[in-house]
Specification:
Length: 334
């Protein structure tokens, strides 16, 4: 079954549905950063300093240093040369793609590429990932997710070490940034786009890349004309970098326990070791987990006419005992 309900607060480790309390493994709040005291304190200070929002352009006469300060912090965090903040992950991906298209390059979307990377009339490649890699030639923009979502796959980017220097590789890292290492060796132009609303808990996006590419993007009308992110949330992010590291460490411990518990077991679920999520197309898994006190996502995405996918994350607020309960439930279903 698919299901829907409305909440009046952000769920943490548990949620109440139909009058029953469940472990909550839904959404994409990987690091559960919103409940971290350091983040809450920084957000409060940010709102007191910048109010709730500031309508502007990044070329406005009045600028806030917080935008550039946070860009520098993000570039350092991800070990890249430069960063360009955007109002959302979707905006970041679209700005990056249209920027690369201005170079006269053809867009080549990988299988499972998130709609944020799509540009009409281009649609994702219908073959498998290895077949897609074999199609890349000169004068192309290769656009891919960093990790599959909702269906979890890790992708091999070793091909990027032999890319034509004039080509672009654009990777949507929204579902692994802040959770896993996203560094990619690339002989072409590498742009990585991120929705900060997931692991980082911020209504914003960012483009990562070389200093030269980011400088050029910041002169592009599409970026100049887009709204900057809320400065109060940028302040919260800037002053929560240690909290992100702390929560990321917790996330890794949980993911490792999950993989260890299921190692060698034919579970019927798909997961990648070290990544805090799992999924399944098994029609009975959702109800089985629900009966065990575990509530996960179960809906069709991004094609709303497709059969629903059972997908769960392992948020950093879980305990090791929670992970044992989850894996025991999966084993009992298998």
């Amino acid at each position: 079954m698919t299901y829907s309900f409305t909440e009046n607060h952000i769920p943490g480790r548990k949620i109440t549905f139909e009058g029953i309390e469940y472990l909550w493994l839904g959404g994409t709040n990987y690091l559960n950063i919103g409940s971290h005291p350091s983040f809450q304190k920084a957000l409060k200070e940010g709102i007191e300093r910048y109010s709730q929002n500031f309508g502007s352009s990044r070329r406005n006469n009045l600028q806030f240093s917080i935008w550039e300060d946070f860009e520098c912090a993000l570039a350092a965090y991800f070990q890249v040369e430069a960063a360009a903040l955007c109002s959302s992950g979707l905006a970041a991906a679209q700005i990056a793609v249209q920027f690369a298209q201005q170079k006269g390059l053809a867009l080549n979307l990988a299988p499972q590429a998130h709609p944020a990377l799509w540009r009409h009339p281009h649609t994702p490649f219908t073959g498998n990932y290895k077949e897609w890699i074999s199609t890349h030639q000169k004068k192309q923009i290769l656009a891919s997710d960093g990790v599959g979502s909702p269906w979890i796959n890790t992708f091999d980017f070793s091909f990027a070490t032999t890319m034509d220097p004039a080509n672009y590789l654009i990777v949507d890292e929204s579902h692994r940034a802040g959770i896993q290492n996203i560094q990619i060796s690339c002989t072409g132009h590498l742009l990585q786009t991120i929705s900060l609303s997931k692991a980082f808990g911020l209504p914003a996006g960012v483009i990562l890349g070389s200093a030269a590419d980011i400088e050029e993007i910041k002169k592009d009308s599409f970026w100049v004309g887009s709204s900057p992110p809320n400065p109060a949330f940028c302040y919260a992010g800037l002053h929560s970098m240690e909290a992100y590291q702390e929560q990321s460490g917790k996330s890794k411990i949980l993911a490792d326990r999950f993989a260890h518990n299921l190692k060698g077991v034919n579970t019927g679920v798909t997961y990648e070791p070290g990544y805090p999520a799992f999924c399944s197309k098994s029609p009975g898994l959702f109800e089985h987990l629900k009966s065990a006190g575990i509530l996960v996502n179960h809906f069709a995405y991004p094609d709303i006419t497709a059969p629903p996918v059972c997908r769960a994350i392992l948020p950093a607020c879980l305990t090791l005992e929670d992970i044992d309960s989850i894996t025991n439930a999966i084993k009992s279903y298998a």
